[in-house]
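for the record, two folds in this file. i put them one after another cuz i was lazy. first one right below, seq on top, structure tokens after. the second one comes after a little note so u can tell where it starts
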Amino acid sequence: MTKKLLMLCAVVLAGLSIYAQEVLIDVVHLKNGSTIKGFVTEQIPDKGVKVQTPEGSLMFFDMKDVVKIVKEAAPLPQSVVMSLPNPYQHGFVRKSPFTAGLLSCIIPGLGQLYATNWEKGWGPFIWTVAGLPLAYTGSLLATLINGEGGLMFVGVMHIGVTLYSVLDAVYLAHKVNMQNGYISMQIGKKTSLGFRPEFQYGSIMQQNGAMTSGFTSGIGLSLNF
């Protein structure tokens, strides 16, 4: 099942891959030493040449002033990558719900701190490392002195805090992954496939020399094993 799914993903990625074609532009070298880059729209022998610049301007040059006309590859367009808003941190790393739940089972609050990058879970964590020892010590002393100290109540309370912390840690891990545009699915015991939408804004030079801008979208994939 895992091999088939991985093969399917590879085929889909190969089919969706787009290879950019190299765009050639005309470079007009003039006798005064200047060069004009663009696209030759009309060339009249022994008279002149018309050149359209990438900005859309149309220029005419007398052939007496032209040294040569050559072609060269157009510079790659500059683009700005726009990623999804990340309320927690840049360079997001997927949070494992299993790891979050396990950490909170060992030390309540620790899984929540892991899932939210130390923003949530301080209450259960402080209760476990500070409140529980104090409550247990106080109840134990009260039991030794008075015969009743509420040890049962402290134990039940700690179990309740632990269960809450485990469930909340798993929920927070899923929530944080979704907030960061990260959706994952298990495809094996130790293998998971993650999806993340990606957006890009950039400028592209068309064959006629015109510059166009727009958004492109895609899906980023990650494989953990």
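(here's the note) second protein begins now
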Amino acid sequence: MIDPNPAQAMETKQYVVGLQKYNRLHNIDDEKKSHPLTVHELSLLVNSLAHLNPFMAALLRFLLCACYLGCFRISEMLGLRWCDVALVDLPGGQFVSVRLRWHKKASVEKECQVYNLVDERAYPCLRVCGFYNDYVNAVGATLMNVTKDAFVFPQVTCLINGSVKINWAKAMEQNFLRKQINDLVESTPSLSVNISLHSMRRGGCFYRVFESPERKFNFRELMAWCRWEDTKTCCEYLVTKSLSDAIDPRHLLQTRHRGPHGVNVEPTNVAEIVDQIAQYVLTHLQGDRTSSVPSSSPATPSELSAIANKQPPLAQRSMQDFVVPKIIPTARSAKDAWEQWFSVDHKNGRPCALKDYTKSMIKSDRKKYSERQTIATAFNKYQSYSHFEQAYAGYTNTYSNLLHEVRKRKRENTL
């Protein structure tokens, strides 16, 4: 137990508020830096709604739960209309259907994505169907005429007497919702002050499930659901996954090499293997593949050996056939990184030092080269490796520790 709690200290709150203001002024995306909300923290947040107005409590419960389960952005949730949300009952169970538009002027028929949110029964705070029913009942209790084009989460004004004023023609503002969450966090000591509007989306990604009944989808739908940062990231994932799927791990585990179909390979009888392969090639693969082997004269031993050692066309290929090998060598310690940066090693395939690499060689492994260049800023401060080792004692045994220490000293400007 720490007293005072650093998560609730006034200095920490002032720092967080200042940091958020700095991020907004300098266009820094705080979505990636936000605190990922856990289920336990969401449960505490939902429980803290008990003292609010019944309508506001029901609204926020459904909003937080749906945003967490669907991994939605707050702006997408606040832009929902009643025609975009429905409770569906099927023989297999019920779920809340949510339709998100890709932009403000999107057509309902094409430019939208439908998500079905199912109750997560392991946690009471994730039972979205129950929260939806509670919110619909709270809306009915207001005795107001709500159309299908009205916003699901309307503009709410809290009055002095504890009641609320609702405007269904306008959506709830993010600043109002941000203030409500901040008030709830301050009233709950167990919650971190770093919780923001993006925390629900970051934390709920573990509960998001995608199902395609037709077993097909277009590229735009995949981009919209997976929330890729850009098209390049999505394409890189698809290409990498296709390369990985092309390699069957069961073939990589085989130690015995099998020849073409119909040839039994036994490692103890090499002469019979050569004869069987040659006979199979001469009888079944006439044409282009056997034009170099005359049928009138017997094959020479060298030709038989070449045929025997030739890889079958349907054999499993390794990853090296698909991926370009890295040019920049791997360093296990600080000494390896020092030698590879300043010296040449023809035996290990390094014709020049890393500091003399050309631009085309750097492109083959740009990330690893940038790491070496960062470490080289520390190398250039010393005349020999012994002096460098004394200055970085305790961090030269592994490459990762050295890189972490150099980056730390570079940030602190103590290189």
